[in-house]
Amino acid sequence: MKKDKKQQINNVIKLSIPAILTQLATIAMQYIDSAMVGRLGENASAAIGLVSTTTWLFSGILSALAVGFSVQIAHYFGAKEYSEGRIVLRHGLIFTSLIALILLIIGCSISYPLPILLRADPSIWNDATLYFLVFTLSLPFMMLNNLCASSLQCSGNMVVPSILNAVMCLLDVIFNIIFIPLYGVLGASIGTALSVVVTSIIMFIISCFIDKKLRITVNDNTKYNKSIINKAIKICIPIALEQVARSGAMIVSTGIIAPLGNTSIAANSFAVTVESICYMPGFGVQSAATTLVGQEMGAGNYKKAKQYGNISIWLGSLIMTVMALLIFLLCPYIFKLLTPVEEVQVLAVTVLRIGCFAEPLYGVSIVSSGALRGAEDTLVPSILNLLSIWVVRITLSIILVVPLGLVGVWIANTVELCVRGILLLIRQVTSKYYFRKEVKIID
After folding, report:
1. Are 20 and 319 in contact (CB under 8 A)?
2. Structural domain boundaries of the chain?
3. Which DSSP helix (H) or strand (E) runs through 310?
4. In sequence order, which residues have a C-beta less than 8 Å from that of residue 149 and are 6 or more positions away?
5. pLDDT by residue (tens digit) across 137-165?
6. 167-197 pLDDT, tens per residue?
7. Which residues are within 8 A (CB) of 46 and not within 5 positions of it... i.e. 6 or more apart?
8. Which terminus of the chain faces fewer neighbouring Cβ atoms within 10 Å, N or C?
9. Are 87 and 38 in contact (CB under 8 A)?
C-alpha cells in the first residue's frame, strides 16, 4: 500500500513539474509585460489593468470549452481507446473554432464602450480600447492553443505544451521589445497576440499531425457524433458559467476600484500580477490532477482516481503556501522593478501581503476543481464557486471599499478565497462521482 501511494505521489509530481514550469513561464511573460508597460507611466499600467478582468472572462470561457473535450480524451486514453480520443479532438477543433469566432465578434463590438462602462478616467480610454481590441482578434488562435495543449496534457504529454508555452513567453518578450517602443500600450497587445498566433499554429501541427496518440489519421471515423458535443457541453457549461461568474465579479470589482483613481487601478493590477507567482503553480498541479483523475476514471479505477485527486490537492496547497511566504518577503523589491511610481509600490505591497494569507486554501480550491473536472463533477463545484465569489467577495468589497479603499477590496478577496477552498475541499471528499459503478464514455 505504501509503495503504491509513493508511486502515486511520484506520478503527480512527474506530471505537475512540466505544467508548473509552463505556468511559471506565463508568469515571467506577465512580469515582463508589466515591467515594460510600467516604464511608460501610471496611466499605461492602469489602461491594461482596467480591461484585464474582461480579458480573463473571455479567456476563461475558452479554457472551459477546451476542458469539455480534453476530459473526454483523458477518459478514452485511460481506457486505451485512442481512436475515440482522436475523434473527440476532431469534433473539438470544429466546435470550439465556431464559438471563438462568436466571442471575437462580441469582443470587437464592446471594445470601445468598455472603459466608459467601467467608469475609468477618460485619460486611459483610448489605450484600454485598443489593447482589448487586439486581444479579441487573437481569440481564435488562443482557443486553438488551449484545446491542443489541454488535449496533449490529458493524453499524458505534459512536456510539449510546457516547452511551447515557454516559447510563447520568449516570443512575447521579443515582440514587446519591437512593438512597445513604437506603439506603447497597443504594442504590448500586439506582441502578446503575435506570440499566441505563432505558438497555436505549432501546437496544432504537433497535436494533430505529429503526436503518436493524438494525430488524426485517414482511418479515423469522420462522421459527426452528436453525443461527443453533448457531453462536452455538459462538462463545459458549468465551468464556463463559473468563469463568467468569476470574471463578471472581477469586472464588478474593477468597477468598484476604478473610482478610487489610477493609482489604485495600477496598484491592483501590479498586485494581481505578482500574486500570480503564488497561484499559477497551483494551476500546473490542477492540470496534472485533471489528467490523472480522468485517466483512472476512464479505466474504471475510481478509488485510485480519488486518491490522485487528494494527493494533488495537498501538493498544490503546499507549493502555494511556500510561494506565498516568499512573495510576502520579496514583493517590495519586485514592485520596484515593475513600476517607478513609489505611491503605487507602497499600496501594491500592502494589499498583496493581505492576499498572501489566502494562498494555502486558494491552492486547495484550484486543484480540487481540476480533480473534480477529471471525474466529470463540474456542476456543483461551479455553483460553489459562484456563491462564494458573488455572495462573499462582492458583498464584502462593497462594504469595505468605502472606509478602507483598495485595502478593503483585498480583505474581501482574501476572506472569499478561504471560504472557496473549504467548500471545494468538502466537495472533493463527498463527491458521488468517485463511487460510480461504471463510466459510459458515449451515451
Report:
1. yes
2. 2-435
3. helix 302-338
4. 66, 161, 164, 165, 203
5. 999 999 999 899 888 988 878 788 888 98
6. 888 898 899 889 988 998 899 899 989 999 9
7. 120, 121, 124, 262, 265, 266, 269
8. N
9. no
